[in-house]
Amino acid sequence: MENITVNNHQQQPLLLPKLQAALAILYSNHQSTNINNVNHHHHQQHEAHQFLLSYKSSNLRRFVVSRIQSQKDRSSGDNNAIGSSLEIELQRYTNDAVCTNNGAVVIIGSIYLSCLSLLLATTTTSFNNGSSHEQIFAAQTLNHRCRSIKLVECYDIEAEDGLECGVGRLVLAWDNDALGMKKGACDNNDGARVILDAWRERYVPMLIHKCCNGSNNAVDRQDSGRTILCDGGQLLAMILEQHFTSITTIAATGERGEEQIKGQLMLITLAVALYCSAFEECQQEYSFAHQQQQQQQHHHQHNTHNTPWANAVLSELGSALSVTALRIRYRPTSDKHTTPEGQPGVPSLIDVLMNVIHMVGDTAGRYFMQQQHQHHDDNGEYRQQLTQACHVHAIKRSIAACLTSLPETVLLPPNNDRGEDHHRIPSIDRACLRAASIELRCDNNNNNGMGMERMLTEMLQSELGEINNDESSCMVERLDDASASRLLKCCESWARFVTVPLRVIDVTVGRLAIRYFTVTDQQHHPQPTISYQKAQNAAFQYLTSIFEGASPSLTVEDILSATLGVAASGVSGKKKQGNKSKKRQDRRLKHASITLEENGIGNTAADAGCSAEEELCLRKNTACLAAAYIFGVSIHQKGGRETTLRLSNESASLFTHNICSTVSIAASSVLPRLLCLERNANANNGSSEQWWLDTFEIVLTSLRQLCQSTNRDIRGLSYEPLMLLHESLNSVPLVGLRMEQIAIDAICECALALSVSCQYPPDYFQNLAIVSDGDLEIERNDVRDVVRSVSNFESGNFSQSSSLLILDYFINSIHASIHEAAAHNLLPQESVVHTISALAKPLNKLGKKYGEQPQQNESIIMTRSLQSYCSVFRGLNSSFHSLSISQILPVSRLALMGLASLAPMLSSLVSANAVTSGDHEELIHALNNTLKVGLEHSILATSKIPELAAESTLKTTRYDIRGTMRGPGGEDHVGCIALMRLSFESDNLAYAIMAIYGSSLFCDIASLYNELKDCEQKRPLGCDYGTGSCPISRRLVLRALSRLCMLQIKRNGDGNETTILHDLVRVPLAEIGAQRDLPITHEKLLRLCESVYDLASFDALVVANVFSNPPSELECVFQSILYGYSQLSFSHGDDQWFEQWARLRGAVVCLLRTCCQQSVTNYVAEIILALGNSEIEAAINQCNQSPTSGSSIFNDSVVGEEVLSAGVYMIVIREGLIRIASDSHTDIQTRLSFRMCLSVLAKSSTAVTTLLLNNSPEAKSHRDPRDCIAESWFQSMSALVSACKTDLSAHFTSNDGIEDLIGASIHICVSLVLMKDLGNKHSPPPTIQRGMSLDGPQTLAMTEFMVDALSPSTLAATARSFATHFQIENINTAQNENLGASIISAGLLRAASGALPPWAVELTPAIFKSLFAALGNNCDVFIEIVSVSTKLESSGEVLAGRYFGTVSSAHIESFLSKTREACKKGEWNKMKSIIKTACGGKKKESGFNLKPQFTCWDCERL
């Protein structure tokens, strides 16, 4: 075929009308108000959307191949029979979208051809009619398909002939040809040539006929008054006519030949579509400019009108061309670890793209010359100028689009932190991606960045004409704004993936980008053009990519993974890589490294690492060079250029987002690198470059300006650079270089500036009732993190480290400011106290180190910090009579937060022997004074300043009202927190504060507590604001007082402290007694709850003494709980009453927990048993109702996650058992406590079994109590098993029945699994299952219990329990001996078959391992047990699951063989995959949730 002519009769692609109709419906703006019309329109849009989804993913070639394979599987292999059968099957599909047997939609017609037709229509359709969405969708579809499927599947033009005549016959022809070649019946070349010749003769003309959208005289056509200059169909026809022979001449045979032809056609058609789209963009913008000129409007240059569709279309087409070039150049090898070489005769990727673009451009030039000779009119000169301008623009835009999309398409990013997934990795063999990565990154000599240098050359030649490399540095300054924008965007795309060579930096940054930062240029452009702004934005984005490519978080492994094509991209957010994922990544990286020798990169994997390390260094050096250019630093000592980034320090108006964000990212990447270069030069006795220091200083100066900005967002950009710089500084033990000292000074100044900038406004606390400024509080928290981070000793280095110097700077500045304020009898600035309160963590570490090895400089720092706190507290204590609460509150709150946080340092100091020496008297004096006045202020502030000035808003806002003495987002009075922290930090600190404060400490705290109690009683019931503190904060005071009293009693015996405690204990007991005879109302429950919580706040020994001689008042409390369970109803009751009852239930649990910390007496055990059995009885009654019934108790407001779940009484037993197991002494009291816990479990076992094995399905309208009760029961049983493994086991007898109790619990576990109906081959499992749900933490507790509990004795007990409840069929005597173990094994297999959630399978190997150990580590016995378990039946059903009832014996033998191998080698981790394979594989879309967390049983804050 040497001459292709265009058929004047238009032939549309089959799918084009449907595609246009669907897009028109989907993007139409329906304005009707009629509800029927609206619903009909929504239905149409839904159908259109579904059609487009199917259209985008349709793959007729793969569908036909799968049908052929199905025919082969069902037949004897006769190809004639297969062809006939396939023909009959495919004849059912017409040229409409129809449904296959499995519900999938098969769309008849060529997707590629219909999309291409839409794109080429760009030249003959006006975009004023809103049809741009058609072109965007078509480009996106082509790109998606090019990236997702093979070339022969993507270019599906044969689908225009239908499924049978087109795709089916072609696939069958290749199949027959391959079969003939295999049998030796024909020459493969001859057969392939016949097929390809027939394909060419049929489908190349069809391509032209169906893509031509007009006549040969397209120039005469007018559309909406606009001249049509370029007809895409005509241009495509001319290209195919002129290059047909070279396109269709192939060297490959078979389907590879088809792939080559289709690949070449795809390159040409995509390039034509790209060219025509760019041409149309320019023509539209010229038309827009012409209209403005006619209206006498000022217009700077022709490309100021943005065509929004063009960028999207060109980007998608450039990506499609890039991935097509990749598929053509590289083919996968049989060894997936071998990097393929480029195909013979196929040039490099960039050459492939440039060749096809220039081919289209050259042909387009001849096409326009023909049009010019054929037509002459009055507008000929204008048309010629417009055509030439659009032609040049189209070539430039096409080249830019391809070179911009190339790295984004075929390369992998070196890090995944940016979370950009709009250019996902194409579905191409990773070895091919590796080959492309190596090609675009390096040359034959392993020089990094050569691909980007080639890109720069091509771009400059495109924009400026033929130039050589020596001229590029000078010629780049001739680029106009539009050309510069294209070049910088392309460079930005490459910089995100590869190293930018230094020469490219010199050209693109040192000569081009900086002209968009120069202040003088901006003065010449008081109103910059759109093109100028676009170029400036592109320059900023380019710099951002350069600096991000040199991020301190980037590692050599990241570089190596990206280079070798084994990195994972498109991950949003900074997600931590799991251990298993990390291991898989390491294996892939290792295999990929082996191939480097074949590619000339290195001889070993170590060479690959060295190459990656060199690239990482080059990236960082490149970033430093770029920073020097943009900040105006002279590298060659010839004077710097004044740039916007440098002069931004002097003009607040230049603080734009682009400038500030660039300064931030530059500081993050450049400062640590410059510091490293300076250190290396000093260590190697080398010379330091002056421009390093100049750049370092100017970047730090700019960073200071960010910190001093009045804009909160701009200040926030400085946080990360400061912390990264400190991390780099702190990496060495000593600081001595000038650059290091400059960095330390800058960090200190910046941090203090940030602290000042985020201080509260002067009138912030004028109204204490309004809500806090959330943004301000967030910023204050962030600044605290910065101050804490830059002064922290993460590396453990305390000598002349940067952290110590920074901390010393902070403390000295704060000390001077506070003492200056004290000299004038003023409170210090709130920002100063805020800063010192943020330094608690480094001060605590310093105190710990000082306690171990005192140093004078450390003593000075801590002394001044304590003196600062002492001065603040003294000023506060004397200010209550002269200042208002609004003035005192912010400083007091911060100071008390700091004091509480400093408890570890204070404890270290009082514990250190060194502080007693004379050299540290000043520190001792400061410590004593600070503790004294700090305690005084804690008591005074708690008494004088209410915790809440108005009602709290924490239920609806993140931060509370302004008038609160709580920490940010906290819930306790900071004065109470300080008292508790100082009392509980250590015994030494507690004794110290008692000695320093004096004997009045106990009376003062007791008086404070009574005062808070009186304020609480005077407030209305349920009101917790206005005066005093909330009950929870008050109890913190009680806890602190109780601990201090007990310590004093422990040291000195009974005294005044005993009387104080006795009097305090009598108060809640008296309050409970006052409620004893009253009806159980909401108010009574509330008062009982508060009193019980008060009682539970005492020391455990005090509470145990109360329970040793139980007062009658406690009966009232427990009876109220039992009464609540008796009020169970199956509808929602009095919510307020039951909510208070739920709080009382939590208070009782806290009281029991406190008592059990000391011992579990008979009385306590009876109470727990009674309460637990009442709850279980209520749960059984609830389950006996329908799952849809309501509940007055088992709902979210009473036993929900935010309150206290059911089963908590067993958790009290569990905690008692854990305490007993951890006790090193097995005295009589410990053994008695253990027997009490065991008694509760044994007496509850029957009721728990009845409840958990209840057949009622999972609850729908109430909270199913079985879930949490099961979790608590199995956790308690796990604690029992752990206790039995301690020295207590020596005191057990068979009469204790521990094995039977554990065996009964194992029976529950297996029975719950066996209750689940897994369905069968013909019917899926029912959606409503018998019994409780197993999708939750109860299953986690159950499986962990099974792992711990299995032993020879428990197996025997389990077998006895199974014998009572199970009727097993076809079991002989020998098998009956290990029946328990066999049933357990069957349950585990059934669990993996779908009875348990997929995540539970992870623990199955551990249970099998425990079962193996319980069987005496006998492999033969274990395999026999597993073998028997696959055959066990009950009521005609295989216990192991439906898969074992249908699979062949060979499948089971394979499973047993693999299990035996894993068992012998001890490779139990492999059992997971073995079990999955045997039990039907992964359970996709099973409806189960993800792996849960255990339930939280905390109830102190209900």
Largest β-sheet summary = 2 strands, antiparallel
Rounded to an integer in angstroms, the radius of gyration calculated over CA atoms is 40 Å
Give the CA-CA distance, first to last residue.
Answer: 86 Å
Number of helices: 61
The residue fraction in helices comes out at 55-70%
The poorly predicted ranges are 1-10, 214-225, 296-304, 417-423, 520-525, 568-576, 598-604, 638-644, 647-653
Query: What coarse outline follows from CA principal-axis ratios?
Result: globular
Number of strands: 6
Task: Order the strands across the largest sheet as they lie in space.
Answer: 1-2
Average pLDDT, all residues:
82
Structural class: mainly alpha
Instruction: Give the DSSP E fraction (strand runs of 2 or more residues).
Output: under 5%
Describe the structure.
This protein is an all-alpha fold and 1502 residues long. Helix content is 64%, strand content 1%. It has 61 helices and six strands. It has a two-stranded antiparallel sheet with strand order 1-2. The termini are far apart. The N terminus is likely disordered.
Concise description?
The protein has 1502 residues and is mostly helical.
